[in-house]
Each structure stands twice: as C-alpha cells, then as structure tokens.
Amino acid sequence: MAKFRLDEVDHQILDILIDNTRTPFTDIAKKLKISAGTVHVRVKKMEEAGIIVGSSLTLDYKKLGYAFIAYVGVFLQKTSQTKFVLERINEIPFVTVAHVTTGKFNIFCKIRAKDTEHAKQIIFELDDIEGVYRTETMISLEESLNDKKRLMHSIFKEL
Q: GO: which molecular function terms (predicted)?
C-alpha cells in the first residue's frame, strides 16, 4: 500500500478532531470553508489508511472520584512470565495502562484510584500476581502535560 499523503486541509481536520472527536463534519467544514462532503471523504480516507483509528472519549476522573494517579514499575522473576503477568494485570480494572519496557522495570503501569488506601490495595494486588518479584511506585502529584497536538504538529512538519 502506498504511503498516504496528508495535506494542510487534512492537518486542519485532525487538529479540530483532536480537540473534540465529536465535532460535527458540518462545523469543521464551516470553519475550514470547505464542504461537509469533503470533510467526510477526507476523514474516511484517513480511517482507511489507518491514520485515524477509532475515536476516544475523555473523562474527568476527578469528578468521578478517581483523581489519584500512580505509576507502578513491576519487576518479574523471569521475563518469560511477561505474558502471564500482563494477562493478570489486565484483570485489574484500575490499571489503565501497561507497557512492557526495557531498563529498570519489566512492566510499567499507570493506575487510577480513589485515594491512597485504594491505591495501596491495587498495588498489593499487583504484588500478589504469580511471577512478580516486587513493585516500585511513584505517585503523580499532577498531570502537567498531556498534549497530543504538539506531537501531531511536529509530525506534520516532518511530512
């Protein structure tokens, strides 16, 4: 498959959708002074090319009572246990992200909890997984940066 080429209009459409994936195509079209059909066709092509994959919803976890964030590095007894441990981690709904990593940890997780007591329960659950040697936890004091647009704009400059 040939590499899909994005032009400035595609960049502008993605820029708007990153801010709010639910923005109606008609609103995007008005803002960019193009037809809604053009927006639809371009988004469809980006989906078919695999550039746009689904859409996401952003929740305000503070309002839901889950403002506590911690990162947990997981040390395994053997790296051959990675798949098994990841399957067990996947059963813990408060672990929202898990990466297999190089370096200090075998697996690096992000957890969301109600408070420190709840976080402790989640961490103990991770510690109790067969094959986990130990864990190391870092508490997030605040999420200071979460900006998909900056990366997108850097990628666009390279294209």
A: sequence-specific DNA binding
Classify residue 131 by burial, with Cβ atoms within 10 Å: 0-12, 13-18, 19+.
middle
Ordered strands of the 132-139 beta sheet: 95-100, 107-113, 68-76, 132-139
Amino acid residing at 153: H
Task: Give the count of domains, the chain.
Answer: 2
Q: Which residues does residue 110 pair with via DSSP β-bridges, in sequence order?
A: 71, 97
CB of 96 closer than 8 Å to CB of 110: yes
CATH code where residue 37 lies: 1.10.10.10
Half-sphere exposure of 69 (CA within 13 A, CB side): 13
Q: How many of the other CB atoms lie within 10 Å of CB of 48?
A: 11
Same domain, 40 and 73: no
Q: Which domain holds residue 129?
A: 68-139
Length of the chain counted residue by residue: 159
Give me the residues paired with residue 71 across strands: 110, 138
- 47, 80, 107, 147 from 142: Cα distances, Å: 33, 34, 22, 14
Q: Is residue 153 part of a domain?
A: no
- Tens digits of per-residue pLDDT, 57-89? 888 999 999 999 999 999 999 999 999 999 999
